Amino acid sequence: MRIHNSEPTIFYHCSLNFNQVKQQFKPLKKADVFLLISILLCSTVLASQFVGLVNAQADSTVTITSKGHVVGTDRIERKDDVYTFTRDIFGIIVVEKDDITLDGAGYAIKGKGSGVDLNRNSNGPSQPGCGGVVVKNVLFCDKGHIFASSNNNSFINNTFEGGGLDIRTGVSMDCIGNVIKQGRLVDCD
Hints:
Elements: H1 18-24, H2 30-59, E1 61-64, E2 70-71, E3 76-79, E4 82-85, E5 89-95, E6 101-103, E7 108-117, E8 134-136, E9 139-140, E10 145-147, E11 154-156, E12 159-161, E13 166-168, E14 179-181, E15 184-186
Parallel strand pairs: 1-5, 4-6, 5-7, 6-8, 7-9, 7-10, 8-11, 9-12, 10-13, 11-14, 12-15
Antiparallel strand pairs: 1-2, 3-4
């Protein structure tokens, strides 16, 4: 069986004259090449900084020293013995100072191994951790940890995402007076 098409078949012929193309695209000047390389280099540097920032956030350690200084972030403001978050914190906060308040102001502690560590003491590993610390208004993400092998610490009005709260005590298991009040457990989205 033979099929006849009533519409005519049209073939297009295309030829390319490279001399005409060459005249339309002028060679790049040295300044143009320099500009192009500069743009590529800057975009590469910016991209690597962003990737480095994301990686650094997941593993960062913020320390409140025994002298009261905040080391490792600019996201915590100090007024007397009250340390207030100004943005989310990525990593772990190590507290080496007794009798302070760590106010999350509704911001989060995020990242792998994130949390608050009251175990470490600048006086040495054999000394008890910090006591009299109040941790309040913090959103603990990624199943945030609380390391507390010390006495009389309070955890008030905190929210714990990721299926639970993980409180770990250090070598000394005779911690007394530690209180958790008004805490909430929520599932992550």
